[in-house]
Amino acid sequence: IDRREVENNLLIRMPELTWVGLEIKGTKAFVKVVEKGPEPQLINRDEPCDIVASKNGVIEKILVLNGDGMVKDGDAVKKNQVLVSGTIIRDNLPERYVHSMAEIHARTWYEDVEEIPYEQIEYKKSGRVYKTYALEIVNRKFERNKKIPYEDYNKTEKEFYIFNFGSYVFPIKLIITEYEELVSSTKIISEEKAKTICEERLNTKIKLQIPEDAVILNQRIEYFPNEKSLIGKIYVEVLEDIGVKVRIK
Known about the structure:
This protein has 249 residues and is mainly β. The protein contains two helices and 19 strands.
């Protein structure tokens, strides 16, 4: 199967996901997903709010347009920490609340891990094909019980409407299902080949986690080989806007 196609289709069909990773080990597929976080609150300009950190980072530049800045350039901040307060407190003046506005850029870090076994299982077509036939009449399917003679196979279906009268098509379909036998074989890949596969997968995974408007500052991959596999770990430093508005209750 095409791993990338499956991953992309899952992302399209399941909008609540932000990342999907598919790994094939033998005849098993292992799927990892990352769910989207809650949608940011939509806060009107006339509503008071704070600006908090969406994640851990180090402030690179903060420009406060409205509200009181609680951090400065170079400060390390934690997720949900208040960066700009919409609560204005001054000596001898009543407390007031404003809609905080600011440009906040911070250095943040992402990392991920991938393991590539040296022993890889490949599946090739044997050339043998088994076909089954079924009729579907007004959304009811009629077919014989079937036992696929292959352990591993590719499956494809073709549908045909078999009766029509002018422009009218009768709701009777012939469904032909083909099973192409796959034969497995084992091959051993080199450490260099494993590094190439690992780098491609890590770069794909990490890019899906980093916001589109973020700027990548540094990136490196470290490899940890063992007797059976190669483990790769990617580290990426980026510059991004981490400010999120939170309504003051």
